[in-house]
Design goal:
Blueprint lengths: L1 H8 L8 H13 L3 E9 L9 E2 L4 E7 L6 E5 H5 L5 H8 L11 H8 L14 E4 L7 E2 L1 E3 L5 E3 H8 L22
Antiparallel strand pairs: 1-2, 1-3, 1-5, 3-4, 5-6, 7-8
């Protein structure tokens, strides 16, 4: 099931034109989310004074649960596209985590799915997408080969039947074929 969905989504890109980001941001807010601009940083496991800001910036939609305060983030383009993506397919599929993991289980799970949320290789320095939306200052976001991106911890929790923030299947514009039945 996931293999078929993943091969389908690899056929197309999800990178939206800048004009589409405005529509995606509006959609995020209409569905109860908050748009958060994030920049990639390296060395976030050390003191903030030593963090290295890397080039680029991305906009994520953050959904916060009103009942337990949990959160999940998804890249605006991943949320807004009506085409299949690897991130959406992985979320829908809820693939169980396999094997053992040394270190961060969300990173291990992201890697198992073919993505990465590791900055600078496997080391103790760490890294992530930094925004000013405390308490989520540093976000571990699983970036998959088609550039679709989703919160690593939210993805792992959902695979284990735990919804963080909101069930993204209710707001992603892409609906998995098996979910349409």
């Amino acid at each position: 099931m996931l293999a078929a969905a993943l091969s389908l989504s690899a056929a197309g890109t999800i990178l939206a034109a800048d004009s589409d980001l405005g529509a995606a941001a509006a959609y995020c807010e209409q569905t109860g989310g908050q748009v958060v601009k994030r920049a990639p940083y390296y060395n976030t496991n050390g003191p903030a004074a030593g963090w290295l800001r890397l080039a680029g910036e991305r906009q994520f939609c953050k959904y916060t649960s009103s009942t337990d305060g949990s959160r999940i983030h998804i890249l605006l383009q991943t949320l807004y596209t009506t085409r299949p993506t690897l991130a959406a397919s992985a979320y829908y599929a809820q693939v169980p985590m396999t094997g053992s993991c040394m270190g961060n289980p969300a990173s291990c799970y992201c890697t198992q799915l073919g993505g990465s949320d590791i900055f600078g290789g496997i080391n103790l320095n760490g890294g992530g997408w930094v925004g000013d939306d405390s308490p989520d200052t540093v976000l571990e976001a699983c970036i998959l080969p088609d550039m679709s991106t989703i919160d690593s911890w939210g993805l792992l929790y959902y695979a284990n039947g735990i919804i963080r923030g909101i069930d993204l299947t209710t707001v992603m514009r892409y609906t998995a074929p098996e979910a349409k039945k």
